[in-house]
């Protein structure tokens, strides 16, 4: 899972997340509630506004951002804040849009027919709803996460246009139309591996999650390690952002890697002064050979 505008705000400033701390809305209240982050997910004002306008306009919210910026965890936070069930549709390179609607299990029907099972003539028994179908068929509004949509082929987003617009689909085998009982809150993530079709983009509200500022990053780290020594965190973050700023680095370290590094530094008993002087456990942050050589060259280590 990714982490960015994430996690409980334990800093000194007043934030929406702090004001809500400890409050879990009921399902009934959530219908009228707006998203303002959670006790575990610190969201920027811009991100909260994008979520709420997408809900108000009943449009999918398309989230982009580099890995480690909290795209996936946003859907979890929205579901928790609004008291709704989360349905996750993880997209792979082989995923087809049809799988999200329903699957007709012809193999199981054939198998049951060979062994004389009862009810083989009832085709509906062999129709299995996919994640999108499950969201439509739910008796209560759900949050549907379509995760990493850009992993699928180029036709995948266009194949979902009708269903996401009309909130219904037709099952040919049973002549049944599945219509959403409650329009789900749809959150779609993309790592920008492929350009998405213009027709699809027109139907979405778009938000790009920027990499966290140092101030926000400190909040995020302190959620995991509230007792981290101030000097150690300050030096670790300065080195971390300096590494990210190196011009030719191929894989910039993400939030999760900084969190792991801070943990490693604490476990290893590393002092704040040693962080700059020795770059201890740098392999936690830098994951490519050529980047490691570049970092050592830039830091004269």
Short description:
The protein has 301 residues and is an alpha/beta fold.
SSE blueprint and pairings:
Elements: H1 16-20, H2 27-30, H3 45-57, E1 61-64, H4 71-82, E2 85-90, H5 97-101, E3 102-104, H6 106-114, E4 127-129, H7 131-137, E5 142-147, H8 156-159, H9 161-166, E6 168-171, E7 176-179, E8 185-190, H10 198-202, E9 205-208, H11 214-224, H12 230-245, H13 255-267, H14 272-278, H15 289-299
Parallel strand pairs: 1-8, 1-9, 2-5, 5-8
Antiparallel strand pairs: 3-4, 6-7
Helix pairs in contact: 11-13, 12-13, 12-14
Structural commentary:
This protein has helices at 16-20, 27-30, 45-57, 71-82, 97-101, 106-114, 131-137, 156-159, 161-166, 198-202, 214-224, 230-245, 255-267, 272-278, 289-299; strands spanning 61-64, 85-90, 102-104, 127-129, 142-147, 168-171, 176-179, 185-190, 205-208. By secondary structure, it is α/β, with parallel strands linked by helices. It folds into 2 domains: 16-208, P-loop containing nucleotide triphosphate hydrolases (Rossmann fold), CATH 3.40.50; 225-299. The protein has a 5-stranded parallel β-sheet with strand order 2-5-8-1-9, with helices on both faces. A two-stranded antiparallel ribbon has the order 3-4. It is elongated and about 75 Å long. It starts with 15 loop residues before the first helix and ends with a helix.
């Amino acid at each position: 899972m990714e982490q960015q505008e994430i996690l409980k705000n334990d800093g000194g400033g007043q934030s929406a997340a702090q004001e809500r701390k400890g409050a879990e809305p009921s399902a009934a209240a959530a219908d009228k509630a707006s998203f303002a982050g959670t006790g575990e997910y610190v969201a920027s004002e811009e991100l909260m506004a994008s979520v709420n306008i997408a809900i108000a306009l009943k449009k999918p919210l398309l989230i982009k951002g580099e890995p480690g910026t909290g795209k996936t965890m946003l859907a979890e936070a929205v579901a928790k804040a609004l008291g709704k069930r989360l349905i996750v549709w993880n997209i792979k390179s082989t995923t087809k849009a049809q799988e999200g609607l329903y699957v007709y299990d012809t193999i199981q029907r054939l198998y049951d027919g060979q062994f004389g099972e009862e009810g083989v003539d009832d085709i509906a028994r062999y129709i299995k709803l996919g994640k999108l179908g499950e969201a439509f068929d739910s008796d209560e509004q759900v949050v549907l996460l379509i995760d990493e949509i850009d992993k699928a082929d180029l036709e995948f987003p266009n194949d979902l246009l009708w269903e996401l617009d009309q909130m219904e689909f037709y099952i040919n085998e049973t002549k049944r139309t599945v219509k959403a009982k409650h329009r789900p809150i749809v959150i779609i993530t993309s790592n920008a591996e492929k350009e998405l079709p213009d027709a699809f983009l027109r139907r979405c509200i778009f938000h790009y999650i920027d990499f966290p500022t140092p101030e926000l990053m400190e909040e995020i780290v302190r959620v995991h390690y509230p007792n981290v020594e101030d000097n150690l965190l300050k030096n670790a973050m300065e080195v971390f952002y300096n590494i990210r700023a190196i011009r030719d680095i191929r894989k910039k370290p993400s939030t999760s890697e900084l969190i792991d590094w801070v943990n490693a530094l604490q476990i290893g008993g590393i002092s704040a002064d040693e962080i700059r002087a020795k770059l201890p456990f740098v392999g936690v942050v830098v994951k490519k050979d050529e980047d490691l050589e570049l970092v050592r060259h830039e830091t004269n280590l």
